[in-house]
Write a structure and sequence with these properties.
77% of the residues lie in helices and 0% in strands. The protein is mainly α and 108 residues long.
């Protein structure tokens, strides 16, 4: 279900609990907006309304489970592009190292 580390899960849970001001185990749109912003995730008001509406539709309310699933989706998207960049950087470094090594070897 999740690719979250224990530290991420703990961070997301504490964020959810902090912004659940009414202790209803749900977040309204403004609470969700503030929670995501505190994690460095800022979206337009229109996007926030859409995200909240979809989660309410799927889960009946923006529950902790819905919030965690949202965070999994967000972190998977971030991780994918980050991993891709790192992979290409690694390949580029290997190519340069290989070329340097080959050049040195052929020069001897």
């Amino acid at each position: 279900m999740t690719n979250l580390t224990p530290a991420q899960l703990e961070q997301f849970e504490s964020t959810f609990r902090y912004f659940d001001r009414e202790e209803s185990n749900t977040l309204n749109v403004s609470e969700m907006t503030a929670a995501l912003a505190s994690l460095g995730l800022v979206y337009s008001e229109e996007d926030m309304d859409t995200i909240h509406s979809e989660l309410v539709h799927d889960y009946g309310a923006l529950t902790f489970e819905a919030f965690i699933n949202l965070m999994v989706d967000i972190t998977e998207d971030q991780t994918s592009s980050e991993q891709l960049r790192d992979a290409f950087r690694g390949i580029a470094r290997e190519k340069v190292s290989s070329l340097t090594y080959s050049s040195d070897k052929n020069g001897l």
